[in-house]
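Friendly challenge for the regulars: who can give me the structure tokens for this chain first? No prize, just bragging rights.
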Amino acid sequence: MSATAHEHTDARAGAPPVTEAPILAGGKAERLGDAAKGKPKPLVEVCGRPLMAYQIDRLRQAGVERVIVSCAVGKGKLFEEELAGLGTTVVPVEEPEPLGRGGGLRLAASARATTGPVFALNGDELLDLDLSTLLAHHRACGAAATITVVPLVSAFGIVDLSEGDMVEGFREAPRLPYWVNVGVYVLDDESLAAFPERGDHEQSTFPALAAAGRLAAFRHEGAWLTVNTPKQLRQAEDHLAAEGGWGS
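First reply, four minutes later:
Bragging rights claimed.
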């Protein structure tokens, strides 16, 4: 089903649209070195556009009108300038000091103009994810928060052994029976209220929600690109070039 179809489904059901999205953007791009050109990681160019521009494209397509960027002190104006003209209002919220990922998201969420669910993202990830489908899944589950997960693929080749320790075969970088949290969420007021003022929500809020049966997962089988090193930056550029830019 298309994003438009999902939006129509939500409208018919009487569910209000999600129009705001906090994004964590405090990454310094230290491992990218000179490839970052001195910019925060979410503003590093991938195929000639800031990495975060691809996220904003997808948020806009899902109906988001206001993107709240949690960034380091003194970087707010840079984010406003670099992300202008993308069809959403960009609202920078500068952290007075490093607050951790959970604290950064809580601070950004405090600048919302509305209540109800929001999309929330790490600013340094790229996914070909249909956010409208994610939102529909979240609402169907009735959870306080939904996290997007992808299959874990081994970074190494696997050796299959028999019970007698004889080698039965080899598998190169196989898919493993586990799932990885990729940092794209739908968060309701209940979960946002439980975020820490300082620290990591994945070590506090999410385990508590899971224990209470209030945390859902959305399985994404598409692409997930991290941009932490020059090699990963080249891989991301190659992938986006092959895929036509992901809706740019």
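The chain has one domain: 3-149+175-243. The radius of gyration is 19 Å. Your move, everyone else.
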